[in-house]
Specification:
α2 packs across α3. A 5-stranded parallel beta sheet has the order 2-1-3-4-5, with helices on both faces. The protein folds into 2 domains: about 120 residues, Rossmann fold; about 90 residues, LytTr DNA-binding domain (OB fold (Dihydrolipoamide Acetyltransferase, E2P), Beta Barrel). The longest helix has 21 residues. β1, α1 and β2 form a beta-alpha-beta unit. It is elongated and about 65 Å long. Helix content is about 30%, strand content about 30%. The chain has about 240 residues and is an alpha/beta fold.
């Protein structure tokens, strides 16, 4: 497998040095940058597009969760923390893993093994589609609740005023992004603009029925019913025809 590019976002120089020492035993991980706060980390991640992020949770001014909220897509993330309560909270965010400080080599190695397994699985399923691949994850924050969600698990995007509602599993949080901003990032072979208000994931469609005036009506696996505009209905039929 190719080397995984990693970055560290951690305010403690001692903790950053500790992580760098631990990485020396893993030639499959290449450290390409480090940052000591959220703003520096955001710039670093956008410039380097890492595969793996070691992220401190408790930092001054902005915490690790706020960094994830800024990113369009989130690398495989391992939280690092000295506080048990933060480690427990990280599970609510679907973090890939967490490491309690001080970090021992055995626990670090175990986490890296899981990273490599996950990365290999993602590489096998990713195609050459521009934009976000289906196994990439995005960070969603709505009030006090947060999630790391794979693109393929999102069934529907829907405009709600100046916000967009995101449907996955039984969750329907709002994010402050326009549907147009979201659409340009999505794999076009899987996500379809049903009408001005909604984008659907065709892999989550349960049933398609003919509707009025040449329109189609979609029933999603989750039960939502979506009416496809007449113009988009013709495109939808053409896209799904053999």
């Amino acid at each position: 497998m190719s080397t995984l590019k990693a970055v560290i976002v951690e305010d403690s120089r001692l903790a950053r040095n500790e992580l760098k020492e631990l990485m020396k035993a893993h030639k499959e991980i290449e450290l390409i940058g480090e940052a000591e706060n959220v703003d520096e980390g955001f710039k670093l991640i956008n410039e380097t597009n890492p595969d793996l992020l070691f992220l401190d949770i408790n930092m001054p001014e902005k915490d690790g969760f706020e960094l994830l909220e800024l990113l369009d897509e989130v690398p495989i993330t391992i939280f690092t923390t000295a506080f048990d309560e933060y480690a427990i909270k990280s599970f609510e965010y679907n973090a890939f893993d967490y490491l309690l400080k001080p970090i021992n080599q055995k626990r670090f190695s175990s986490s890296i093994t899981k990273v490599i397994e996950k990365s290999n699985a993602v590489s096998e399923t990713n195609g050459k589609e521009k934009g976000l691949s289906l196994d990439k994850q995005i960070f969603i924050k709505d009030g006090e609740k947060c999630w790391l969600v794979k693109i393929k698990d999102i069934s529907l995007f829907e405009i709600v005023g100046n916000y967009t509602r995101v449907f996955f599993e039984s969750n329907k949080p709002l994010i402050y992004k326009s549907l147009a901003q979201i659409e340009e990032k999505l794999p076009s072979d899987v996500f379809f603009r049903a009408n001005r208000q909604q984008i659907i994931n065709i892999n989550h469609v349960n049933k398609v029925v003919s509707w009025f005036n040449g329109k189609l009506k979609i029933e999603m696996n989750s039960g939502e019913e979506i009416e496809i505009s007449r113009r988009q209905s013709y495109i939808f039929k053409d896209q799904l025809s053999f």
